TrEMBL record:
Residues 75-94 have a biased composition (Acidic residues). Residues 33-45 have a biased composition (Polar residues). Residues 33-94 are annotated as: Disordered. It comes from the Bacteria. Transmembrane segments: none annotated. This is Spore coat protein CotH. InterPro entries: Spore_coat_CotH_CotH2/3/7.
């Protein structure tokens, strides 16, 4: 099209020559057209391949007796004063103009006034602009020369950012992004001058653009890492990974374990340099963070329980309470203490079964009056679990949390505390509920002589250890399994022998139905059995078929399972089991020699289908979340666990029947935590695969 325009322009100039009003040297135009023709390319293509724009040269005085400002005039005949409309319909060959000036016979004469001369000069300037603008590039990616026209009295100047372009050249600026260039051209002719503005898109440099993308990814990764790592450190911290960039860490005065920065305890603040190496697309960036390990006095404290017995009497019996007073302290973020309970009257004794014979003793507390212990309810009876056999201290808390996340009807509350008895530090303990019938715990009917009332049972094989004839427990046997009646209380004034007969018959009916593979839904609340099973199987709890297995039934209701309890010997932490049972694979609770009820239930396809359905409902948001809870809980008790194992130096050294060889070989607290976490990861993955094989 540009070639056509030049040809028409040339024809128009010749028309002017015929009118004795316009003289022009057409050598440049002919040259440009000839060059384009020889290369068999359009002017546009010629321009794209060259940074030099052909110079339009005219050494002959260019004059006109009228301004040419319309398509119609460019197509007029050679009659000087014709005002008829053009007949050509090929509008693509015409150059657009801004105004239309009517041509008359008088306008073909030589100007006779100054004003007419100015009008002619301005029209000529516009014609020059239209001519050169045809050569303006829309975009550039290298140095580029803008077009110019040589004629006496004519001046063309280009400006970019208020700076005149020398030699009409735009110097390409390599950037990582495309940029719009605002160009100003000033055209002077004779005594007239006009300003025109246009834009050119300077294309980005692709190499720089790609490099900028890489740099941006690195910067984003560093920002994410910095945001995730605290400047002041008071516990082990999980170091962030990145979805795109490979990140590795190193640190002085500490070490990295399983992508965890291990906190080292100091009496004073300690400066630690962390070096971060980031790798992406074979490029490497390094970054350094300066961290401060807080002094032990600045690390957040967990609540403290201080118990003082009368006359500093020792607590050494499971049967006999010792009277004393309890003070409960809580601490804010600045470790400023707040007294929650102050010298409250209470009784305390030992509790537990196997844990009763371990060096660090568990306790049961009975207040004179009901108290709230970090709960929104008030009770008299509370428990302090020692967790001596669990060298992470968190297995019970993890299981209670999973029960809570599954929305089981009653999940034991829990709060880690530091315990002092008669001024002596006892260690880290888990404060939790007593498993009993109350309105805020196991909420079933009690204190009635009704036969169909509320019942709380415990599946407890320890009765054999005590002796079936010597135990004080109120129990009955089904298939050799002792079921202890926790409620109704045998010594309660409302208790009747018929109540024992009722619940024993109920449990016998259940066993008979299960043995015969009959429908069981009229006897048990299946959903509670499934949730209890999920918690115990995830932790592969050794007691799930031995003791601390609870069932409850309300007046007129179905038998339910819960609460979950006693997980210190779980998830690989059992030295008394043979090696093939200690690992994270294989169903445990439903083994024939373990929990007989679940052995029978897992023979039902409908039970396994219901288990599969529930598992998949809670897998993503509940079950997998328990993995993250491991670090959250250990970080929460960081200072407390340090003091605990300063007092009880047992990690990697204490050996007893319950200590597995795998855990005995681990010498650090962090190693114990990683063992637990890895066990749960493998265990959950195995269960997920096996349960989803069910129909």
């Amino acid at each position: 099209m540009k070639k056509i325009i030049l040809l028409i322009s040339f024809s128009f100039v010749m028309f002017l020559l015929g009118c004795d009003g316009f003289v022009v040297n057409t050598s440049m135009i002919d040259s440009s057209i000839e060059s384009s023709t020889n290369d068999n390319e359009t002017i546009e293509n010629t321009y794209e391949k060259s940074t030099e724009i052909p110079t339009i040269e005219d050494d002959t005085e260019l004059t006109t007796s009228f301004p040419i400002t319309s398509k119609e005039e460019l197509t007029s005949t050679e009659e000087e004063t014709s005002t008829e409309e053009p007949t050509s319909t090929d509008e693509e060959t015409f150059t657009e103009v801004q105004t239309t000036i009517e041509i008359t016979e008088d306008q073909t004469e030589t100007p006779t006034s100054h004003q007419e001369t100015i009008n002619e000069d301005e029209a000529y300037i516009q014609e020059v602009y239209l001519m050169i603008s045809e050569y303006f590039p829309e975009q550039i990616s290298e140095d580029t020369v803008l077009p110019m026209l040589l004629k006496e009295g004519l001046s063309i100047r280009y400006y970019l950012n208020n700076q005149r372009l020398e030699n009409y050249k735009i110097i390409y600026e390599a950037l990582s992004y495309s940029k719009t260039l605002d160009i100003r051209v000033i055209i002077d002719y004779q005594s007239s001058s006009q300003i025109f503005d246009f834009t050119i898109l300077q294309l980005r440099d692709e190499d720089m653009y790609q490099e900028s993308l890489v740099n941006e990814i690195f910067l984003d990764a560093i920002e994410e890492i910095q945001a995730a790592i605290p400047t002041y450190v008071q516990s082990d911290i999980s170091l962030p990974k990145h979805d795109v960039v490979q990140v590795s860490y190193s640190v002085d005065h500490s070490y990295i374990l399983n992508n965890r920065l291990i906190f080292i305890f100091h009496d004073q603040d300690k400066t630690v340099n962390m070096n971060i190496e980031l790798t992406y697309q074979n490029q490497i960036r390094t970054h350094q963070l300066i961290l401060t390990f807080l002094a032990m006095t600045k690390i957040h404290k967990i609540p403290e329980i201080h118990i003082t017995t009368e006359a500093n009497q020792s607590i050494d019996s499971k049967e006999t309470y010792v009277y004393g007073h309890l003070t409960l302290y809580n601490f804010n973020e600045y470790n400023q203490e707040e007294i929650l309970l102050n010298q409250v009257g209470m009784n305390i004794r030992l509790r537990g079964n196997s844990t009763l014979y371990m060096p660090k003793l568990p306790y049961k507390i009975k207040f004179d009056d009901k108290q709230s212990m970090f709960t929104d309810y008030f009770e008299k009876d509370w428990v302090l679990l020692a967790n001596f056999s669990d060298q992470t201290l968190i297995r019970n808390a993890l299981a209670f949390q999973l029960s809570r996340d599954l929305n089981m009807e009653f999940s034991p509350s829990f709060q880690f505390v530091d315990l002092y008895v008669n001024g002596v530090y006892q260690g880290n303990y888990l404060l939790t509920d007593q498993v009993e019938v109350t309105n805020d715990r196991i909420n079933i009917e009690e204190n009635t002589s009704n036969i169909d009332t509320g019942y709380l049972l415990e599946y407890d094989m320890r009765i054999y250890d005590e002796g079936l004839d010597t135990t004080k427990e109120n129990y009955f046997l089904i298939d050799g399994i002792p079921f202890v009646i926790k409620s109704p209380d045998y010594y309660d004034q409302h208790y009747l022998p018929g109540q024992k007969e009722y619940i024993e018959t109920y449990m016998n009916d259940l066993f008979n139905v299960l043995k015969n593979k009959e429908d069981y839904h009229h006897l048990i609340d299946e959903s509670t059995f499934i949730d209890w099973f999920i918690v115990n199987e995830i932790f592969k709890n050794v007691d799930s078929g031995y003791s601390s297995v609870y069932y409850y039934k309300d007046q007129g209701g179905l038998l339910k399972m819960g609460p979950v309890w006693d997980f210190d010997l779980s998830s690989g932490n059992y030295g008394h089991l043979q090696e093939d049972l200690r690992g994270p694979e294989g169903f445990y609770t439903s083994r024939s020699e373990k929990n007989r009820i679940f052995y029978y239930l897992m023979e039902y396809d409908e039970f396994k289908s219901a288990l599969k359905l529930r598992w998949n409902q809670v897998y993503e948001e509940v079950i997998l979340n328990i993995i993250d809870e491991v670090y959250r809980l250990t970080d929460q008790i960081n200072l407390s666990r340090y003091h605990n194992f300063q007092s009880w130096d047992i990690i990697g050294s204490y050996q007893d029947w319950f200590v597995s060889p795998e855990l005995l070989a681990i010498q650090t607290y962090e190693g114990q935590v990683e063992f637990l976490r890895d066990f749960l990861i493998i265990r959950i993955d195995w269960l997920n695969q096996e349960i989803n094989k069910f129909n």
